[in-house]
Specification:
The structure is a single chain. This protein has 287 residues and is α+β, with helices and mostly antiparallel strands. The chain has a single domain, classed as Metallo-beta-lactamase, Chain A, CATH 3.60.15.10. The protein is built from eight helices and 14 strands. The chain has helices at residues 4-10, 18-22, 26-46, 65-68, 114-131, 139-145, 167-170, 198-203; strands at 12-13, 52-64, 79-93, 96-102, 134-135, 155-157, 175-176, 180-184, 193-197, 228-231, 235-238, 241-245, 254-260, 263-267. Strand 11 (235-238) and strand 12 form a beta hairpin.
């Protein structure tokens, strides 16, 4: 893992919500975050705007109805469906363009997540891949669409590490029995580093039983250390681009925040539960 001083030298930590994060009372915490939002938004807009922001649909995937509609409704169907999207984000700093992929899901390897693997075992490959899910395009397809080469990608990040397997993107230090049994994997993105919250990384070896179905912990064992950047809390990546620590879905969940010509946008898979869609309770309401 990277040393603390190395992490601090890469991105600027933002203190706007530090006091709120220390509070254990969730109602008071939300109140404090709402109160901090006006000054945060004023400051964030002054950092500048992202130079590019593209939304890219990757795959339609099933999710248990009992989780997605928890306390909001009931349905006889066991699944609801959500669209997994990747965002291509660029910003200008230090005399160059920086490029980050947010949520670059490797849609083939994600199917080995215990929850999805159990669907394949129960219903067969055809139903699992052709009926329960629909692939729109791959990460590589969108790079070509927007004129990007794998070498152009500086960072990748995920709001949390549920289901993800980034071995093909980042490479490995050792052979992998399932996809490269004879030699270590060469990275598809030769220059990219994974930005991940320290808290997210630390839960992987010690998963709570409720998390077993959603992580692939073994896929993170052999990623080279120099391909990892650990963050703690809220960080500004560049003008108009930051990651806000939003614990809840997992301890290390963070949300992408981008300032664009059409306003400030926030994205996180935290929004899968119906109760998250209460706009008046959102800290960014009335932007």
């Amino acid at each position: 893992m990277l040393k603390t001083e190395e992490k601090k030298s890469i991105f600027q930590n933002i203190p706007h919500f530090d006091e709120a994060h220390k509070v254990r009372n969730p109602g008071l915490q939300l109140k404090m975050m709402k109160e901090a939002i006006p000054s945060f938004k004023k400051w964030f807009k002054q950092t500048g705007k992202a130079s590019a922001f593209h939304s890219c649909d990757l795959i339609l995937a099933p999710y248990p109805t009992k989780y997605g509609l928890f306390r909001a409704g009931s349905s006889p169907t066991p699944f609801i469906w959500f669209t997994n999207r990747m965002f291509i984000v660029q910003w200008e700093a230090e005399g160059r363009t920086w490029t980050m992929l947010n949520e670059p899901t490797e849609t083939v390897l994600v199917s080995e997540t215990p929850f999805y693997a159990s669907l394949k075992e129960k219903f067969g490959d055809f139903l699992a891949h052709k009926v329960f899910s629909k692939e729109y395009a791959k990460v590589e397809d969108y790079l070509k669409l927007y004129g990007l080469e794998p070498e152009d990608i500086d960072y990748i990040t995920y709001d949390h590490l549920h289901t993800q397997d980034a071995l093909r993107w980042l490479g490995t230090t050792k052979p992998q029995a399932d996809i490269s049994p004879n030699e270590s994997i060469k990275p598809y993105f030769p220059n990219a580093k994974l930005i991940v919250q320290q808290k997210e990384w630390e839960i992987i070896p010690y998963l709570h039983p409720l998390q077993y179905d959603w992580f692939q912990p073994e896929t993170f064992n052999d990623i080279p250390e120099d391909r990892l950047i650990f963050t703690n809390g809220d960080v500004l990546l560049g003008p108009g681009v930051m990651l806000l620590w939003t614990p809840g879905h997992t301890q290390g969940n963070h949300s992408l925040v981008v300032n664009t010509d059409s306003g400030i946008w926030v994205s996180s898979e935290n929004g899968i539960a119906a109760e998250c869609y209460a706009p008046k309770e959102s800290c960014f309401w009335n932007d």
